[in-house]
């Protein structure tokens, strides 16, 4: 049996780059092909290709002519491969590298029946697709007296006094409540509404930080009273709760409640999703519903179904859960409908389906700053066809 030796990622990356440029000798080409036959090099291939994806000088993603060359060059070498698992990895990276020409640092692949990527046709951007933009920092703040204040990334400075708190907007899409130190006896409530195509951050009067995703609402007191700290959420938010042992922090979601013991967690409670998800990153939370309760450990997710039944999922992919907060879409075996729900919220699109959509699963990640053209290109590479008309996107087989 032949002996295989793990090749340094830097060496492998150099060979891949030289392969793209037709600069390999026969000996070097043999060495590169040999790495495709062994699982020992799987991680090295991933590392090397990831580095190549992020090196814009290697693929010239702003240059259509260079893109054509990348599509032609980035193909798996021709000999038969004895390990299909390794070939699948290579094909995934090949697809990702080509996609990077339109989507910086993005990787996507469809699972189930894999189809080699097809080079996208060069199409001029239409006026309707150009009108669809990625989301931005924007929200509407409703004060206790009903006054509505539009918010975005450009405004800054003091906005209002509400009870015992001063409201200040910062330029980075953030709202801050600063309490004067005295507990409020009469609570006044504000509401922060983030529309589709938006996101926003808020620091509550107790120092708790909240990131709100698109199509979400947070209802909260301008300063907390002497008892429990209670807020209401619809949509999705990531919380970093300020610890106050004598004042539990509670998030009310529909007919359920998340009781926090000083922690970081994510709550997803969209009306068009099958269930509400509470995912714990750090600390401890207790999730209550009409049917019972569950206490979570870091890495667990409580799923509350219609009727209040709670199930707990272990070993959740934390990167996937908070990708939106960190500026990415990230999917792991996600159905087309789940992908389109996220795109609908972030790009402010109405989604319709036409015909029978293949039962495939989507995986990978991409920057949320990507244009709708880039998203369409990614879907079409996997033979999922879409049509954009103003604010409507139609998914076709």
Automatic annotation (TrEMBL):
Q: Which GO terms describe its molecular function?
A: sigma factor antagonist activity
Occurrences of domain Protein FecR C-terminal (ranges)? 328-395
Q: Which InterPro entries match?
A: FecR, FecR_C, Ferrdict_sens_TM
- Where the record annotates domain FecR protein, the positions are 193-286
This protein is called: Iron dicitrate transport regulator FecR
Give the originating organism: Chitinophaga parva
């Amino acid at each position: 049996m032949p002996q295989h030796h793990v090749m340094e990622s830097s060496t492998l990356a150099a060979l891949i780059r030289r392969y793209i440029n037709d600069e390999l000798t026969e000996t070097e080409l043999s060495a590169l092909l040999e790495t495709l036959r062994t699982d020992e090099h799987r991680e090295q291939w991933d590392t090397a290709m990831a580095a190549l994806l992020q090196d814009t000088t290697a693929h010239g993603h702003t240059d259509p002519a260079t893109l054509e060359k990348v599509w032609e060059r980035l193909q798996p070498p021709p000999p038969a491969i004895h390990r299909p698992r390794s070939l699948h990895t290579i094909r995934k990276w090949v697809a990702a590298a080509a996609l990077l020409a339109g989507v910086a640092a993005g990787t996507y692949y469809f699972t189930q029946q894999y189809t080699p990527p097809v080079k996208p046709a060069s199409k001029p951007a239409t006026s309707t697709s150009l009108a669809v933009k990625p989301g931005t920092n924007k929200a509407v703040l409703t004060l206790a007296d009903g006054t509505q204040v539009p918010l975005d990334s450009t405004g800054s400075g003091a906005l209002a006094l509400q009870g015992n708190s001063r409201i200040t907007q910062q330029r980075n899409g953030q709202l801050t409540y600063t309490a004067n130190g005295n507990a409020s006896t009469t609570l006044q409530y504000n509401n922060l509404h983030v529309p589709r195509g938006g996101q926003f951050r808020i620091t509550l009067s107790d120092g708790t930080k909240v990131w709100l995703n698109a199509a979400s609402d947070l209802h909260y007191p301008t300063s907390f009273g002497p008892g429990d700290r209670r807020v209401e959420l619809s949509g999705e938010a990531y919380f970093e709760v300020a610890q106050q042992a004598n004042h539990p922090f509670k998030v009310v979601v529909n007919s359920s409640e998340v009781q926090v013991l000083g922690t970081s967690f994510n709550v997803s409670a969209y009306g068009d999703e099958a269930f509400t998800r509470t995912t714990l990153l750090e600390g401890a939370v207790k999730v209550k519903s009409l049917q019972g309760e569950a206490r979570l450990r870091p890495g667990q997710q409580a799923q509350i179904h219609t009727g209040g039944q709670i199930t707990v999922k272990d070993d959740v992919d934390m990167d996937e859960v908070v990708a939106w907060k960190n500026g990415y879409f990230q999917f792991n075996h996600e159905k087309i409908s789940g992908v389109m729900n996220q795109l609908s919220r972030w790009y402010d699109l109405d989604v319709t389906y036409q015909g029978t959509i293949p039962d495939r699963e989507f995986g990978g990640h991409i920057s949320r700053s990507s244009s709708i053209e880039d998203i369409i290109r990614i879907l079409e590479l996997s033979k999922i066809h879409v049509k954009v008309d103003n604010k409507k996107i139609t998914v076709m087989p």
